[in-house]
Design goal:
6-stranded mixed sheet, 194 residues, Glutaredoxin, 8 strands, alpha/beta
Length: 194
């Protein structure tokens, strides 16, 4: 056997052995628990804002207190945003009656002249407001679009998704928060009668 063939066989053997060891160590492991939302103690209050919708009405985040909110920073030109929007429309339909709302914060520089036809063409069924850099800064300097926050009934950020995320990640977070019992004003969980 030539030296090159022997070295190649040795390399293949090392790789095979490494894969075998890896498979053996993974075999007895418990599956990792997927955390779809932050623990209650790790949640921070979502910053308050006042932004205008297409009709010029001022919308405050506090208007949604008591509801689970998917707060999506997006733009009409954003490819990944266009992938997520149909999911969010479906979530709005599916969960609205359980105390859930989607709120889209458009970061389009051209404002309503590009947002309105986009929303009408796609028949977006949830509320859209026009955001600005100040609002993006309140939420940790939103630099990538989409950036989406899932906010619990108490107005706290339960999960953050930067860039295109999986539909199931959003849905699992929404369902978990909708199933959680609401907390009263002194921090005691109430029975959930939804």
């Amino acid at each position: 056997m030539s030296k090159r063939v022997w070295i190649r066989a040795l390399q293949i053997g090392v790789v095979a052995a490494s894969l075998g060891v890896l498979a053996w160590t993974m075999h007895d492991r418990e599956p990792e628990t997927r955390h779809v939302v932050k623990a209650d103690s790790k949640r921070q209050q979502a910053p308050e804002f006042a932004l205008k919708d297409a009709g010029g009405k001022l919308v405050h985040l506090s208007d949604f207190k008591g509801k689970v909110v998917l707060l999506d920073f997006w733009a009409t030109w954003c490819g990944p945003c266009n992938i997520e929007i149909p999911w969010f429309m479906e979530f709005e339909r599916k969960y609205k009656d359980r105390g859930f709302e989607v709120l889209g914060v458009s970061m389009d520089d051209d404002g309503w002249k590009v947002i309105t036809p986009f929303v009408e063409h796609r028949k977006i069924n949830y509320r859209i407001v026009l955001g600005d850099d100040k609002t993006g800064d309140l939420y940790g300097s939103v630099e990538a679009l989409p950036t989406t926050f899932v906010i619990d009934r108490e107005g706290r950020i339960a999960s953050v998704h930067v860039g295109l995320s999986g539909r199931k990640d959003f849905e699992d977070a929404i369902e978990k928060l909708l199933d959680d019992a609401p907390v009263d004003s002194v921090g005691v969980k109430r029975a959930n009668h939804s």
